[in-house]
C-alpha cells in the first residue's frame, strides 16, 4: 500500500522503515529491577508486527528514580539483558528506543523509607501516603547535579545495550516535568519561577546527554502540550518549551500531555477502570481509598480521535525539528491525517497492545480501523504477574497465564 505512514524516515544514523512507532507504555515485565524474558518477547512481537521503532518504557536512571519497587534501573548489569531485547527487535527489522526517566516526587517506593522522594518543591505525596511517605522533599542543587549525571550515564549505557535512540521523559508529571510545571514547581531559586528557570534542569539534562552521546545521536524528548489541570503548564508555555529543547539539541520531540498523579486519563482518554484498579491493588488501605475517592481523584476525559491534534499543531508551527504525534491516532485515516498535518512520525500505544500486527494489516489493506476500544483495562493489567496486555484479547490472557505458570516472568532476559 502506498500511504504516507509507510514512507521511510531517517535522522542522523537512525533509519526507520516507516513512520509508526510504538510509544512507551509501562510493561510491568521486570524481575529484580532487570528486564525479564517477557519484555524481550513483547517488543520482538511488536517489531514483527511492522512498526518502524518500538520504545521500551520507563527505565529509571537511578535507584531513587523508581516510582515503585520493581521497576527497571539502568545500571551496568542491565546492559546485557537489554542487548537480548535490542537484538530481538533488530532481527524483526525494527529499531528500538529506551525511555529514561526519574519519578521525582511521584513515588510509592517504600525502599526510600521515611525520608521519602524528592521533587522540585516540598509538598504532599498522595501517591505514597499509604506507604509511609506522605511528603515530597525539595531537591537540593547537589542532587539535581547528581540526577543530571545519572541521565548522562544511563544514556551512554542505553547505546551500549544496542538501542538506536533514547527518549528523555519530560512529561506526565515525572521529575523533569515536575520542574517544568508551574503547578508543581514552587521553588524560589534559579530552578523555579519563570519558565526559563523551570526549564533549567531539563535543559541541563539534555545538554549532558548530548555531550555524552555526540552531535548526531538520535535524542528524543517527550513533553507535555498541557498538564490537564488548573494552574499547570498549558499550550503557550509548551510551545516555548519545545523551542527551547530544539535549541538545546533534541533531535525529535514527542508530544503528549497530562500528569499521572493528577490527570492520568487526560493523556489516554476513555473509560475509567476503577473496579479493575481495586482488584490489582495489593495494599488493603489503598483499595479502600480507590473505592472511596477514585471517582474524584481520577477524573474521566472522553475519547475522541486525534485528541491532541489542535495543540500539537501549535508546536508544529513553532519548531522545525521532527515531531512525533501521539494521542488518539488509531485508524489508517488518522495516520494519514497526522502525516498530512506535517508530523514526521506517529506514535501508537493501546492499539498496538490490542493487535501488535496492526501496521502490517494496514499496509496489506486488511484493516482500516483498530479494534481497540478505550476501555483502559490495559493500564491495570500491567500490575498483574506477567505484565501488560489487552484484556479484551482472550489469546493474550491465555498466553500470559501459561507464561506465568512456567515462571517466565521470573526469569531475567539473557
Structure report:
The strands form 4 sheets. The protein has an 8-stranded parallel barrel with strand order 3-6-7-11-12-13-14-15, surrounded by 7 helices. Strands 8-10-9 form a 3-stranded mixed sheet. It has a two-stranded antiparallel ribbon with strand order 1-2. Strand 14 (about 325), helix 11 (about 330-340) and strand 15 form a beta-alpha-beta unit. The chain has 15 helices and 15 strands. The relative contact order is 0.14. The mean pLDDT is about 95. By secondary structure, it is an alpha/beta fold. It is globular, with a radius of gyration of 20 Å. It starts with 8 loop residues before the first strand and ends in a 9-residue tail after the last helix.
Strand content: 5-15%
Quaternary state, please? single chain
Shape: globular
Work out the helicity level.
25-40%
Write down the overall mean pLDDT. Answer: 95
Q: Any idea what the radius of gyration is? A: 20 Å
Terminal residue distance: 37 Å
Strand order of the largest sheet: 3-6-7-11-12-13-14-15
| Biggest sheet character | 8 strands, parallel, barrel
Q: What string gives the helices and strands in order?
A: EEEEEHEHEEEEHEHHHEHEHHHEHEHHHH
- Number of separate helices: 15
Uncertain stretches:
none
Q: Give the structural class.
A: alpha/beta
Number of DSSP-assigned strands:
15
